[in-house]
Amino acid sequence: MKRVVLLALLVVLLSLIYRAIIPPPPRSCSTAGVPSQTPKIKLRDGRNLVYKEYGVPKNIAKYNVIYVHSFGGSKFEASLIIPQAIEELGVYFVSFDRPGYGKSDPHPKRSFKSLALDIEEVADQLELGNKFYVIGFAMGAHFVWGCLKYIPHRLAGAALLAPAINYWWPGFPSNLSKEAYDKQLIRDQWVYKVAYYAPWLMYWWNTQQYFPGFSVITGEFKLSQKDLKIAYSLDEMQLQQAYVTQQGEFESLHRDLIIGFGKPEFDPMDMKNPFYNNDANIHLWHGVEDGIVSVKLQNFIAKKNPWINYHELQDAGHLFPCGDDSIKYDIWKALLNHEKK
């Protein structure tokens, strides 16, 4: 009898553990119900990506640019980094909900490579030409490394704005990455460890009540004084939160953490210049006062990749792309006018 009771208790316990660590399936967000005025693309594998257009009409544009949104962002985020002179620059600018975000279908096998190929297919279906520009912010810029790795032949240029960093990239000297890692909030250090060592625990870690979750999800991350001023003006972004995670947090936020901070798909510091004739214009921008992503590690990456134009902003934090219009304009002019270091 005792054996039967123990077996029953074990089954119940395993069931509870399974429920705790296995994320629920993404909530249905069929684009069949998306209003017809909301443009979408059906990819070759059947997934839908929903997108939004900015700037001048495509048929009169001088430049075609694709935007890759940040962690917790969406296609609407692009409006925050556009300078007032976007039409004067002659830019057609398109942003899309990354897989699992907003109304874009999830991709359980999402990776740096799959997202780069999605971006290439977006460009092809929208007929943006053989070459186009890419801009990414924070986690979005992190994924732009995938474009440089997998589709460099399609790029006229790229701007990486405060890109996230994987502390496990092997190209970092161990003392340098440890110094930067130790400066992160303890709660975030644990999330990075879960992403690397036990990604199957990511859902549980960010939904359990025993330990604090990832600070960017809970809204308790470190911001500089300059960032705080910018953050207070980002109501437009905050209002989109329900839209961003409408399919659930796992396929959007948690999967980002697993891909971005888990076992590296590749190391940007191992990359050779893919633009042999300097026929693309690559820029990396970072604020010295960034409290989320280490400027020291960013500086090291830039030195390992001298073919990238590196801009270190002395009086800026993490949110500089959403701040002063003059900085936004500088970013766009540098990218589109092929300014050199």
Automatic annotation (TrEMBL):
<feature type="domain" description="AB hydrolase-1">
    <location>
        <begin position="64"/>
        <end position="318"/>
    </location>
</feature>
<dbReference type="Pfam" id="PF00561">
    <property type="entry name" value="Abhydrolase_1"/>
</dbReference>
<dbReference type="InterPro" id="IPR000073">
    <property type="entry name" value="AB_hydrolase_1"/>
</dbReference>
<feature type="signal peptide">
    <location>
        <begin position="1"/>
        <end position="20"/>
    </location>
</feature>
<keyword id="KW-0732">Signal</keyword>
<protein>
    <recommendedName>
        <fullName>AB hydrolase-1 domain-containing protein</fullName>
    </recommendedName>
</protein>
<dbReference type="GO" id="GO:0016787">
    <property type="term" value="F:hydrolase activity"/>
</dbReference>
<dbReference type="InterPro" id="IPR029058">
    <property type="entry name" value="AB_hydrolase_fold"/>
</dbReference>
